[in-house]
From TrEMBL:
Family matches, as Pfam families: EAL, Response_reg
Keyword Phosphoprotein among UniProt keywords: yes
All residue ranges annotated as the EAL domain in the record: 154-407
Gene Ontology MF terms in the entry: cyclic-guanylate-specific phosphodiesterase activity
Family annotation (InterPro entries): CheY-like_superfamily, Cyclic-di-GMP_PDE-like, EAL_dom, EAL_sf, Sig_transdc_resp-reg_receiver
Gene Ontology annotations of biological process type: phosphorelay signal transduction system
The protein's name: Diguanylate phosphodiesterase
Keyword set, alphabetical order: Phosphoprotein
Coiled coil: none
Residue ranges constituting the Response regulatory domain according to the UniProt record: 11-137
Length: 407
C-alpha cells in the first residue's frame, strides 16, 4: 500500500460506465491510499476532465455504452498535440475481454505515446490494482516529466536543433549491427542519430527527431546522418570491410527535391560504391504523394542504392508500399517479434512476412530480437537476418568497425 502522503498527492482518473462498478473501484483505490480519485462514465467525459485537469494515471474500461475506451489513446494524443494536455498519462485497462484484446489495447496506448500501460482482467483484485498503479507511477519521472521542465526542454531543443544539425556540434551516429543468424556475421548496420547537448546532456532521438519534423529540418537531419555514415564507410572501405549502413528517412524527406542527387554526390565524392548505402523508409508518417515517393525510390535504386522498408506491418499501407515500390529488403516491426511467442496473430504475421519476402526475392530482417528464443523461432520460421539488443546494442563507429574486423 502506498504511503498516505504519496497516495494523497496522486491524481487518478477512473473511467467506468457502470455506476456500481465505478463506486466499487473508487472505494478500492481509497483503501489503497489514493485520495484524489475522480470517476467519469465515458471516454468523452474523460477527455473533458483531462483537458481541465492533469491526472497521473488513467484507469479505463474498454467496452462502454457511450464512447468506448478504445478511443482514449488517440484522443489523448490529439490533446497533447494540440497543446491542451502537457503529456500522455499511463493507462491501466480494466476489462473482461479476452487477453489477446487486452494486450492489443496495451500496445495501442504505448503506440500513442503513453509512458506505460497495463491491462487487468475483471474482476480486478486489490493486489493486481496495487501493482498496476505502482508500475504506472514508476514510469513517470517526476523530475523531467513536470510540465514546466518539459516545456523548457522542448523550447531549448527547438531553439538549438537547427544550429546543431548545420554545424554538427554534438551530433553523431551509433550503428546497430544486422547479422546473419546462421553465421553470426554482420551483414549490415542501421545508423541511429544521437545528440549530446552541452546543458541537457544526451537527448534521445525520440525527442529531437519529431522536433526536426516540426521545424522542417528533416532533410537537414538526413544530410547530417548521411555525412556521418559516409565518413564511417570511408574508414571501413580502406580496411576492406564492405558492410552496408542504412540511413532512416521519412516519406516526406525522400520526396524532397534533389535528395537522390545529393546522396549520390556524397557517395561518389567519397569514392564509395552506392550499394554500401541503404535508405530505410520509416513509417512514422503517412505517404501523401505516392508519385513523388515512387520517383525518388526508383531513382535511388537505379543509381545503385539499397532500399529497405522499416517497421513492416505497423502501418496501414505496408502491403501496398512494399508491393508497389522497388524495395530490396523489408524489416518486420519489432512489436510482432516481441509478441510472436505468446500471440498466434503476431507469429502468423512474422511467418507471412518471411514467406512473402522469399517469394518476391527480397531480404527479410527481424527487428527487436532480444532473447535466444527469438533467434530459435526465427530460424524455425526461415528468417536468417536479424537485429536487436539480444544480438548487439548500438555501437560507436569505432566499436562497430572492430566488431566487423573480428569476423
Amino acid at each position: 500500500m502506498p504511503k498516505s502522503d504519496a497516495g494523497a498527492s496522486r491524481r487518478i482518473l477512473l473511467v467506468e460506465d457502470h455506476p456500481v462498478e465505478r463506486a466499487y473501484l473508487q472505494n478500492m483505490l481509497l483503501a489503497l491510499g489514493y485520495r484524489r480519485v475522480a470517476g467519469v462514465g465515458s471516454s468523452a467525459e474523460a477527455i473533458g476532465a483531462l483537458a481541465r485537469q492533469a491526472y497521473d494515471v488513467v484507469i479505463s474500461d474498454i467496452v462502454m455504452g457511450e464512447g468506448d475506451g478504445t478511443r482514449l489513446p488517440n484522443e489523448l494524443r490529439q490533446l497533447v498535440d494540440g497543446g491542451r494536455l502537457k503529456s500522455m498519462p499511463p493507462i491501466v485497462w480494466i476489462s473482461s475481454l479476452a487477453d489477446e484484446l487486452l494486450q492489443s489495447h496495451v500496445r495501442l496506448a504505448l503506440q500513442a505515446g503513453c509512458p506505460s500501460s497495463q491491462a487487468l482482467a475483471k474482476p480486478v483484485t486489490r493486489t493486481a490494482m496495487q501493482h498496476a498503479i505502482k508500475a504506472a507511477l514508476h514510469s513517470l519521472d517526476d523530475d523531467t516529466a513536470s510540465p514546466r521542465r518539459t516545456a523548457v526542454r522542448r523550447e531549448v531543443i527547438e531553439a538549438e536543433l537547427g544550429r546543431a544539425l548545420n554545424s554538427g556540434d554534438g551530433m553523431s551516429v551509433v550503428l546497430q549491427p544486422q547479422v546473419d543468424l546462421t553465421t553470426g556475421r554482420a551483414v549490415a548496420a542501421e545508423a541511429l542519430s544521437r545528440w549530446d547537448h552541452p546543458t541537457l546532456g544526451a537527448i534521445p532521438a525520440v525527442d529531437f527527431v519529431p522536433a526536426a519534423h516540426r521545424l522542417g529540418l528533416d532533410r537537414t537531419l538526413f544530410n547530417r546522418v548521411a555525412d556521418c555514415v559516409v565518413e564511417v564507410l570511408v574508414t571501413m572501405h580502406a580496411e576492406g570491410i564492405a558492410v552496408p549502413i542504412a540511413i532512416n528517412a521519412s516519406a516526406s524527406t525522400l520526396c524532397a527535391p534533389g535528395l537522390p542527387d545529393g546522396l549520390e554526390q556524397r557517395v561518389t565524392q567519397a569514392g564509395l560504391p552506392a550499394r554500401l548505402v541503404k535508405v530505410e523508409l520509416t513509417e512514422d508518417e503517412p505517404v501523401t504523394d505516392w508519385l513523388a515517393l515512387s520517383s525518388a525510390l526508383n531513382l535511388l535504386r537505379v543509381r545503385g542504392f539499397e532500399l529497405a522498408m522499416d517497421d513492416f506491418g505497423a502501418g496501414i499501407a505496408s502491403m501496398r508500399l512494399f508491393s508497389a515500390m522497388p524495395f530490396t529488403e523489408l524489416k518486420i516491426d519489432r512489436d510482432f517479434i516481441v509478441h510472436m511467442h505468446r500471440e498466434p496473430a503476431s507469429r502468423a504475421v512474422v511467418a507471412a512476412a518471411i514467406e512473402m519476402g522469399r517469394a518476391l526475392g527480397r531480404r527479410v530482417v527481424a527487428e527487436g530480437v532480444e532473447q535466444e528464443r527469438d533467434i530459435l523461432l526465427l530460424r524455425e520460421l526461415g528468417c536468417t537476418l536479424a537485429q536487436g539488443y539480444g544480438i548487439s546494442m548500438p555501437l560507436a563507429p569505432a566499436d562497430f568497425i572492430a566488431f566487423c574486423r573480428r569476423q
